[in-house]
Amino acid sequence: MDPKKQTLPIILASQSPRRKQLLTEAGYTFTIDAPDDSVEKGVCSSCGPQQLVVDSAVAKAAAIAQKTIAKFNTSGQSEHTATIILAADTVGVCKAEVLGKPVDVDHARRMLELMSGTVHEVMTGVCIWHVPANCFLTFLEKTTVQMDVLSTAMIDEYLETDLWIGKSGAFGFQDDIDWVQIVAGLASNVVGLPVERLPQWLERLMEKSGLH
Q1: Which of 48, 54, 66, 91 sits at a 20 to 30 Å CA gap from 123?
Q2: What is the CATH number of the domain that holds 130?
Q3: For 34-66, what is each residue's pLDDT tens digit?
Q4: Does the pTM of the predicted model rise above 0.70?
Q5: Burial of 151 (0-12, 13-18, 19+ CB in 10 A)
Q6: Count of domains observed in the chain
């Protein structure tokens, strides 16, 4: 579904300002309704990074889908009002270690030290869920990233900016840092949402929902 031909409302199941910006810049119209943080806690953490991000995206989308249907029913709206839920989860993977959001500055430092001078992957799992058809599709996007060797001073300087807060891998590719380069894949995926892939997958969801 090309954003210029968007016919169904989209709910972004995320409070991430990066995902909001990417979706806005891509031309989509949407509202935001993020699931509670506890939703991710029930996702298996030992099933590998690829399955982890996909399962997390599904859990987020399912929570908002259920909430949306309940809201329709209590407000008297038709339960057949069509809506698309969009959810995503992003992690970095370096030396077989999964790097999510740092819990504090020391955790962020350890992440940056681990990735310093390495080539690693950023993975995003995406789930798009059609309400009320109650069907969904998932996909996984990978981007290979090269990080320069970081000195202690460089890490200290970046951590002092607080730009690492809330970002998988403790850095934001969109923050005009010059020590991270894309080797292969989409830059938007490193930011948190591979928006270039959305049109084809939204079309597939519409077909699966019987709307094509």
Answers
A1: 66
A2: 3.90.950.10
A3: 998 777 655 555 678 899 999 999 999 999 999
A4: yes
A5: exposed
A6: 1
The amino acid at 158: Y
In Å, what is the CA distance from 71 to each residue of 14, 54, 106, 169? 18, 26, 41, 35
Structure tokens at 153: 């001073």
Q: How confident is the model at residue 174 (pLDDT cuts 50, 70, 90)?
A: confident
Q: What is the DSSP letter of 148?
A: P
**Residue written as tokens 């060797």?**
149
The type of residue at 133 is A
Vertex 127 angle, CA 168 and 93, to 5°? 30
How many angstroms separate the first and last alpha carbons of the chain?
Answer: 11
* Contact between residue 142 and residue 183 where contact means Cβ atoms under 8 Å apart: no
Look up the domain containing 35 and give its range.
Answer: 3-208
Q: How far apart are CA 32 and CA 193, in angstroms?
A: 15
User: Is residue 89 helix, strand or coil?
Assistant: strand
